[in-house]
Amino acid sequence: MHHFHLREEALYCEQQGLSALAAQYGTPLYVYSASSIRDNFCRLDTALAPLNHLICYAAKANSNLAILSLLAQLGSGFDIVSGGELYRVLQAGGRADRCTFAGVGKTRHEIEYALREGVYCFNVECEAELETINEIAGMLGKKAPIAIRINPDVDARTHRYISTGKSHNKFGIGLDRAEEVYARAALLPHLQIRGVQTHIGSQILDAQPFVEAICKLIPLVTRLRELYQIEFFSVGGGVGILYKEALESGSPDWWQKNTSSPLTLEKYAAELLPHLSSLGLKILFEPGRSLVGNAGVLIAQVVQVKQTPAKRFVIVDAGMNDLIRPALYESFHQVIPLKPSSVTPGDLADLVGPVCESGDFFLQDVALPELQPGDYIALMSAGAYGFVMSSRYNSRPLVAEVLVEGSHSFLVREREQWADLIRGEHLAI
Ligand code: LLP
User: Fold this and answer.
1) Do 322 and 275 fall within a single domain?
2) Do 274 and 301 reside in the same domain of the chain?
3) Do 271 and 298 belong to one domain?
4) What's the maximum distance between 2 C-alpha atoms anywhere in the chain?
5) Nearest of 317, 371, 312, 315 to residue 339 by alpha carbon
6) Ligand 1 pocket test: which of 37, 56, 57, 60 has the largest number of ligand atoms within 8 Å of its C-beta?
7) Is the overall model pTM greater than 0.90, yes or no?
8) Closest alpha carbon to 390 in 400, 378, 402, 398
């Protein structure tokens, strides 16, 4: 579900024309729709209503303060993976006691910070980490709430870089050793066993792997409830979104129909509910992409069009440093000219950025309209893992972000200037 649409032959985010935003704030520019995020959250929350549940938005998907604040106001908790993310959540008005702290390499400094702030739970990824958390909690005179992340050895059938629930992945503890590790945790005086957690991967478009993982874990979860009176079971995140129509219909405007993903939030909830409702536990969900992915676009401007004997290259001012997903995961983002009617359909071309790497492309060998320098395009579905994964590679300042609500737009991150590039750097001699 998203609020991007064509109106009077121009692309709009809610009631805001995107060309006007590009002209006002410059490009490259991330634009997010507040209503889309709110709708996604409320749809999931409603679908999960039969369960005692807490949605802990995975802040890594998009951690702009304005988005964290919007979700905090809706009552969301947060799944965080660093001290920095906890800091952001608190600055945005989120509550520490609704945060789960995950990650395979939490530092002592981060653990101490999270303990002082009073996070709801540490999701522990290895035995040694139990000892570390126990020791730091002891030093602070606190009891640290913990859950252990269990790796269910389930194939999420997604890109191998974002598959996390197989035994060869670095995440979690194998099901065969889970009870033994819990028993060890129970002996540590400064730990309080609070739950159990799992997460099998991201951009998953089929409920089956989720159900398989949950069913594999249920006997353990039931035992842990008896043994340690655990209060929650977190089933992680991972619901995918539609980046591209499953069957390439050839119609560039499929996204306009607001086609929903094969795994809608309602379907996901309906498939999981029967397995979770009788556990008598609070169920935590950690969605990232499914709440913000379709709620954002990256606007870029055409800088040059270059025709070589081999190809036509449309070169835009956004690069792989601004949106790395195509380069890293070979992912697809639909490209929409901001004024589709003003451009005529063209031949096969590559849509590329200005970065000095051949991997700096958004699309390769696709029928791109006859774009001209100065034209704007939108890279759709860039709200998740877009800005947050950007870098200053090639000394390119980080871009601006705008949040749209109805006909209002808010600059929620200022565009960096060249001076920002060297802030904190010093000449050695
Ligand atoms: N919980 C845990 C423990 C996670 O590791 C993740 C994502 C999530 C929840 C949220 O997953 P989601 O609902 O967003 O699928 N950069 C990649 C995705 C990396 C996902 C990392 N973990 C991409 O752009 O596709």
Assistant:
1) no
2) no
3) no
4) 71
5) 371
6) 60
7) yes
8) 398
